[in-house]
Amino acid sequence: xxxxxxxxxxxxxxxxxxxxxxxxxxxxxxxxxxxxxxxxxxxxxxxxxxxxxxxxxxxxxxxxxxxxxxxxxxxxxxxxxxxxxxxxxxxxxxxxxxxxxxxxxxxxxxxxxxxxxxxxxxxxxxxxxxxxxxxxxxxxxxxxxxxxxxxxxxxxxxxxxxxxxxxxxxxxxxxxxxxxxxxxxxxxxxxxxxxxxxxxxxxxxxxxxxxxxxxxxxxxxxxxxxxxxxxxxxxxxxxxxxxxxxxxxxxxxxxxxxxxxxxxxxxxxxxxxxxxxxxxxxxxxxxxxxxxxxxxxxxxxxxxxxxxxxxx
Length: 312
Hints:
6-stranded antiparallel barrel; 6-stranded antiparallel beta barrel; about 40% helix; rod-shaped; about 25% strand; alpha+beta; Thrombin, subunit H
């Protein structure tokens, strides 16, 4: 039975092939007005409206499918572009960080011009920043194991950053010059008149130079630098000539000059700093021992008394 069925199907297939060949031969052999051409035209006349109707009916479906396809393709392209943008953003950030770090390190390399040759600079990265507008401290990744001690001055390529407040073995907290407890003995430009730079009350980004002698002059735009003396009670040994800021305004209070100062260091963009450590036997170390012998209230000696010793 199976063989008969197979033979029957083969015979039918062969018959259909033969008929198709005969019809094709007859179709191409007759004129355009022949019977087969007439049948074809009649068939098209019947089928074409059906095809047009079906095409119009199915057009919304095709449009919907095309919309889904294009949307998925656009989403895929969007995701690829977002991924590429994110990679480029990371590359840009990394490049900017490397560029900024290079510039800071280059500036720090030339800091001997600021009179820090008596110190041993220790370079450190800022790892924690105080998240508020007052921005009083930062943490660095170097500590006592690198020779850093409390009250060591901290600088970067732009000038004075602050001083070391607390020290651990492998880290330290740096008190910025805008911290209300800070006070730095300073002078304006090449003047010999010495005062004290402290944060300006109510203005976290500004400093004020006060306690200048009567008649001392300061002009807008002049640089304010460390004087090389000690301003009690803030017994930190800042070497002379470290830039603190620029004069923005001048005035008087009780007959004495008062100078507004804008810090030159961008304290909100600190990445790399240097801590000026005092090696044993160095002049800063000797002065440090002298300061430790002073009374705790810090009123037994002032800047002028220590100036003759060349203190920082």
